[in-house]
Amino acid sequence: MKRVVFNQKGGVGKSSITSNLAAISARNGIKTLVVDLDTQGNTTQYLLGQPLHEIENTVADLFEQTVSFNLFSKEPFDFVHETPFPNLFVMPSSPNLDHLEGKLESRYKIYKLKDALTKLEDDFEAIYIDTPPALNFYSRSALIAAERCLIPFDCDEFSRQALYTLLGTLQEIRDDHNATLEVEGVIANQFQPRARLPKQLLEELIAEDLPLLPIYLSASVKMRESHQQSKPLIHMAASHKLTQQFVELHDLLNDKKSGKGKSRSSKVKVKTA
User: Fold this and answer.
1) Cα angle value 174/101/158 (rounded, 5°)
2) How far apart are CA 269 and CA 263, in angstroms?
């Protein structure tokens, strides 16, 4: 299973959601890989506890060799790093992704990530891909490589308008490059149950038959503490309310994958704002 977490809007929790779902997967005994395509490298630093400049053999190096004439190219597994957590691995990000993007686009290397992850399918049962907050070469590569897509959503009006655009973008990716890409659902993040506006927005999304997942992730300072300690919540505070919400979300997604659960919708729905 290859799952991408994507939203063109920044600050919606892509890295936190990617890392914590992957950590729960690994904690359950599933050999799990996280691919970090965001040049900020938040996922990489969260799971490895290292600054980016100290890390060699990154995802940027994987892309670099596709446009170089090196006769001794490495295999995709050579760019995978073991984390301190059992069964959890990372293909780390690098600021060099920025410099490579134009070269990769001009040589149309948009399918190279898909090729690399296909080679890793025998090594990892679950692969999670974190994306930059933009529709660029790397996020397109991820959407082409993935089988499933999760959309983080912070509960405000700007995010809702951006969501309609994003769903249209995903439909284009399906039509042009990846007909099997499935939108697993929209994840309400930083949810405040006592505030009127978030509840109203989510009710409207449900009324529009958009694929909102039924588990809402609460706003909590515990997530910031988790980032600071470079420990996913399942390893830092397993009994915390937010951790349990992530566990419920992980289980829901895997029940859907196995056919045990039912989703609101697996089709891309587009609404014109």
Assistant:
1) 55
2) 14
Question: Which residues have CB under 8 Å from 264's CB, separation 6+?
Answer: 185, 206, 209, 210, 211, 212, 213, 214
Q: To which H or E segment does residue 183 belong?
A: strand 182-189
Q: Does domain 2-258 have CATH number 3.40.50.2000?
A: no
* Predicted model pTM: 0.92
- Length of the chain (residues): 273
For residue 19, which of 103, 100, 83, 111 has the smallest C-alpha distance? 83
Per-residue DSSP letters for 91-138?
Answer: E---THHHHHHHHHHHTT-TTHHHHHHHHHTTT-SEEEEE--SSSSHH
Structure tokens that stand for 59 in this block: 């995802």
Other Cβ atoms less than 10 A from the Cβ of 137: the count is 22
Average the pLDDT over each of 26-40, 156-170, 220-234 and give the range with the smallest value: 156-170
- The arithmetic mean of pLDDT across residues 260-264, rounded, is 46
* HSE value, Cβ hemisphere, 13 Å, CA-based, for 96: 16
